[in-house]
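User: Can you help me understand a structure? I only have the sequence.
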Amino acid sequence: MIVATGIGAFPRSVPLLPHNKFGAPHSISNPRNRIRFPESKSSNFIPTNPPFFSIKAAASSSSSSDFVSDYAEEPATNVKFPTLLNLPGCSSSLSLIGTGFREKVFAIIGVKVYAAGLYINPKIIDKLDAWKGRTSAQIQDDSSLFDLIYQAPLEKSLQIVLVRDVDGKTFWDALNDAISPRIKSPNAVDETALSDFRGIFQNRPLKKGTFIFLTWLDSSKILIHLSNEGIPSTSEATIESENVTRSLFDVFFGRDPVSPSLKASISNGLASILI
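Assistant: Let's start by predicting it. Here is the structure, written out as tokens:
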């Protein structure tokens, strides 16, 4: 179902690592990064550089529109992502850990549709001690690590930035074509959640530069934010269904992600942190 949401408080962030520990997220524009829209079947891609963290700066943020001045550019699309983010409905500032892009393939020509960046509550890192010392490749291939990130009762948000105009129905149809096969036996709650999710995008033109935030609050609840003018002041809706929220996470971070470059960048970022 869809319910109204408010703006949560933003408590002090927990410093994790020195501010200058990381370089900017980096994905490589390479034919191996190209995937079929709406669902990827390719598992070959080139890993990307680790992200630039500014965890300490999050402690000074106090409103939903605050940013620090640091940005990381996704080079295939030239979209800039702030390294720290305060988003309505989240309990603390979130940190960028990787970026990537999504392509639609027409014949043999790849057309970039959007850039994406994953933000997490820094406290999630405290739950990943068992993966210290793992390489990027090991992290990327270990689904249990991403399962733990998903299951952690702390916020994580995927920011999507459109790099071309997309009809809302087309965007939803592509997303639904990836989500629905992952729900083997949808129940009434799942069907309602999918219907509500579809209603957010139906008959809604999405212009180049539109921000879409998919924010997991816990394992059964996500917030949807949309904005044509920067960070939204409120969330669009809340979707509640454990099967839908889990499947949505798997679309981007499972074994067959729709943006291999995004998952590779995140894996590199985690490997740089978990040393």
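Now, to help you interpret it: The chain has six helices and eleven strands. Residues 1-69 have pLDDT under 50 and may be disordered. Let me know which part you'd like to focus on.
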